[in-house]
Amino acid sequence: MATAGRADKAGMAEARRASQGLFERIGAFLFDHYLAPTPNNYAFAYEVQVNPAGTLAQAVAGMIDGRVRLTQDDVDGLGGAGSAEAELARQIAASQSLVARTAAQVEGFETMVRSIRDETGHFGDDLAAGADAIRRTRGSVGIDEVVDIAGKMVNRVRTAERRLAAATSEASELRQKLQEARDNARRDPLTGLPNRRALEESYATAAAGGETLCMAVCDVDTFKAFNDRFGHLIGDRVLKAIAEVLADQCAGHLVARYGGEEFAVLFSGLSLDQSLALLDTARSTVAAKRYRLRETNAPLGEITFSAGVTAAGPNESLAELFARADRLLYAAKADGRNCLKAG
Any bridge partners for residue 310, and if so which? Predict the structure, then answer.
């Protein structure tokens, strides 16, 4: 008992030292980068320190490479620990955990199947022995032996059935979890739209099938200035609202968040004029909305997006198609924004 008590105290002391070390690292991070000790900054530093191999920590490392320190704008730009980047990091960590659990379950399944095979492997030998016993004795002793063997076989079969049923259930659950992980890897955590990876895969499949394809690249107008004025949390709400309009007005076609305030729409089976008309309905719907702050009902001003729309040529890569649509997008921006350019 005394030994157990000392072990508990040693464990508590070790946990306290670990907590103290983490607290000191977070404080040093904030101090080194001249960041105020606000809750958001503390949460940001916490995420970087506890997950140094994560997406957010890697983004920070890339930003300070060759520089003295982060700025508050840098931290706000990444969105802190509650940002989509941090959510993506958490999803990646969850996927890695799922892979580890999957490997363990597969190994356990293989072990169980080998065990069942071993248990049932002697059935033939047992039956042969029972038959020989009947032929030898032609009496009650041989029959009793066969009955005993049959009873044991029935018990083994029932045990095997139960274990196989459990294994089937585990395999079904595992397939569902793996499908969820695959879906998450192709979905933007902020808007719920398909992401760039999903866009690339969908384009490859559709192009290989010879479908008529058009690509639109959309960008929210003056979004950086909007974020600077209202903050990233409000900016995220606007991005989600625009994503909903695009998904609704372009239903039946792939709407993806390409990155930042940029969206892409892959139109299938439509001409360039049809794609342009559909997207223009989405553009006018966004422009007509009067966005307000949820907390105060204060107006946020006009929010619009511009876009470039183009048709895919034969054997054209996604990179080539996207680049052409992107050039048309910049032409739309140069023409005053809140408009579309096709070509």
Answer: 215
Question: Domain extents for the chain?
Answer: 12-82, 100-185, 196-342
Give the pair of three-digit tokens for residue 336. Answer: 């005053």
Among 44-58, 73-87, 111-125, 163-177, name the most confident range: 44-58
What is the sign, positive or negative, of the torsion defined by CA atoms of 131, 135, 137, 143?
positive
H or E segment and range at residue 42? helix 39-50
Task: Answer whether 287's CB lies under 8 Å from 299's CB.
Answer: no
Q: How is residue 312 annotated by DSSP?
A: P
Instruction: Please tell me the CATH superfamily of domain 196-342, with its number.
Output: Reverse transcriptase/Diguanylate cyclase domain (3.30.70.270)
Known catalytic residues are: 261
What separation in angstroms does the CA of 33 have from each of 30, 42, 53, 71, 150?
5, 12, 20, 7, 77
Q: pLDDT tens digit string along 297-330? A: 788 888 999 999 999 999 899 999 999 999 999 9
